[in-house]
Design goal:
Length: 564
């Protein structure tokens, strides 16, 4: 009676026996219903034609794989108007048509597939005594019927990459419920326009500043209020400042001594010690060490690596001059890029800046060893400059990097401490290099109350370079405060001042805002943003990477909608 009680109550079957074969369980079942309905005409029949056996896999019993050996019947259809003469009786509550697994086992496999995908789900299913293949799990996911979500009142739209740089899609999120409601192939206007036409009733559309989404929302949902995402707007302001600082790099470099980050007390005591001179034998006069400028002048004596670097610098300078000359002659950016074999982005960079861009400004990058710098400097001042020993001791202090990184860092610190010939970097330049344009842009965009003292000092120095710098920084700070809802001036007034600004970078940015003025104004008054949409994109990426990026659009859509 126990095996019979575990089966659905609506099924008319009898248990003829239970077979234990090793670690597996087989239940011998027999259909006992008096009649069966024809699947075509629906007329019941009690005239049995023959019997046949079906082998069906079921949920495990006491941790053992379970198989049902069901004896079913074939019936005559006595309806003279029905084209079918014989039919097999069906038990839809137990097993679907033509299936080899019970409905409840298929539901369990589908749930595992939604959670873990194919390979991982197959491994877990085997551990749970209901083994199946990864392909079967993926097929269960694709066969799942997705429940239609109600049309949202507030819709969030953003794009995501199926294969970055090649294939993209569009994700739609109900911002009030915080759930994904659909994934669309492509990130162009037609796909979103069709979806909005099929789902009328959207009142608010939150989006980034992509023109395709704005066009689709205007055409298919003209009644909806479009809201530009505030984070993307702040990012656009920072990118505009980045371009502005790159174009005026020469003026910023002139103020590099004041813009360079001041050293702290600990750094001042360790970075400028008395130079340790090497011992000199009696009767011999020390030969002066040539500077890097003297070595560069004698190119025949320079190392091959430095010669190659100098050659690249000269080639880059020649390309920079040629591009500006061609543009002065009236050639378009497209033609310059085609004839010189450059990208249009590189040509624009050449034309935007008043000097040849330097991809190696000589500024040290941040490393994991920066937090150990004071300890390393103390060891070097004590004469312990063996990189292998320092790497071993740093590993004991929690450092997880490699030996080569320690060796390079020790070499730079030795040069900074004057224990050997210094290199031409930030520690030895007469005028320290100015901070990168990106760092300056981030300092300007940070909230004034959150800026560090050195960042505030940099902003004040930039503001005092000239009137153009002061005006651009003031306008950028005003717009950032408006987007953060810290101040409430009119966007129209800000646009008038920005369009009258002397900076072409600020003028171009203001023109872009003017084209999307209604959505930007709504971003300053509406509470909606694309933050929840970005979170759902991160979840989508996690699911995609679980499947090693090989999931097709249909499978990925099913898993994302189920995860929502």
């Amino acid at each position: 009676m126990l095996p019979l009680a575990l089966l659905p109550a609506s099924i008319a079957v009898a248990v003829d026996g239970v077979v234990l074969d090793g670690g597996a369980v087989t239940l011998l079942l027999r259909a006992t219903s008096a009649t069966a309905a024809c699947p075509l005409c629906g007329q019941p029949s009690r005239h049995v034609h023959s019997h046949y056996a079906r082998t069906i896999h079921d949920l495990p019993l006491q941790g053992r794989p379970t198989t049902l050996r069901l004896t079913a019947r074939k019936f005559f259809c006595r309806n003279p108007h029905c084209p079918r003469r014989l039919f097999c009786e069906r038990l839809p509550d137990l097993v679907p048509r033509y299936a080899h697994s019970t409905a409840r086992l298929m539901d369990a496999h589908r749930s595992i597939g939604f959670a873990l995908g194919g390979e991982g789900g197959s491994r877990l299913a085997s551990k749970l005594a209901m083994p199946t293949s990864p392909d079967t799990l993926l097929r269960r996911i694709k066969q799942a019927a997705t429940a239609g979500a109600p049309t949202p009142r507030v819709l969030g739209v953003d794009d995501w990459a199926m294969r970055k740089g090649q294939t993209y899609g569009t994700i739609l999120v109900d911002l009030e419920r915080g759930q994904v409601i659909d994934l669309l192939p492509g990130r162009d206007a037609p796909a979103l326009r069709q979806w909005l036409s099929e789902h009328p009733g959207v009142q608010v559309v939150s989006r980034d500043r992509a023109g395709a989404y704005a066009q689709a929302a205007s055409e298919a949902a003209p009644q909806a209020t479009q809201v530009a995402d505030r984070w993307h707007l702040l990012k656009n302001v920072r990118e505009m400042l980045d371009r502005f600082f790159e174009r005026h790099r020469g003026k910023i470099h002139a103020a590099s001594a004041a813009l360079a980050q001041p050293l702290g007390p600990a750094e001042q005591t360790t970075s400028q010690p008395t130079r340790i001179e090497p011992k000199q034998e009696e009767g011999k006069q020390e030969e002066p060490v040539p500077t890097r400028a003297e070595r560069d002048s004698a190119s025949s004596e320079a190392p091959p690596r430095e010669q190659a670097q100098q050659t690249k610098v000269q080639q880059r300078l020649a390309r920079y001059r040629e591009a500006r000359e061609r543009h002065g002659q009236g050639q378009s950016i497209r033609r310059i890029a085609q004839e010189m074999g450059l990208s249009r982005k590189a040509v624009r960079r050449y034309l935007r800046q008043d000097h040849c861009p330097d991809w190696r400004p000589g500024q040290p990058r941040r490393t994991q060893l920066d937090r150990h710098r004071e300890w390393i400097d103390g060891q070097l001042l004590a004469g312990r400059d063996n990189a292998a020993q320092l790497h071993q001791e740093l590993t004991e202090r929690g450092y997880v990097g490699c030996y080569d990184a320690v060796r390079r860092f020790v070499t730079r610190r030795l040069a900074a401490l004057g224990k050997e010939r210094q290199r031409a970097n930030a520690a030895t330049c007469k005028h320290p290099p100015a901070p990168a344009a990106r760092d300056l842009a981030f300092a300007v965009m940070r909230r004034p109350e959150q800026r560090k003292p050195e960042e505030q000092a940099r902003v004040d120095i930039l503001r005092g370079i000239n009137e153009e710098f002061r005006e651009v920084l003031t306008l950028a700070e005003e717009l950032a405060a408006m987007l953060r809802k810290q101040s409430a001036p009119s966007l129209q007034q800000w646009l008038v001042k920005a369009e009258a600004c002397a900076s072409p970078d600020m003028n171009g940015f203001a023109q872009g805002i003017r084209q999307d003025e209604a959505a930007v104004a709504a971003a300053m008054s509406e509470p909606w943003s694309n933050g929840p949409v970005e979170g759902q994109v991160n979840r989508l990426k996690t699911i995609k990477r679980q499947m090693y990026g090989r999931a097709g659009f249909q499978l990925l859509r099913a898993r994302v909608l189920d995860a929502a």
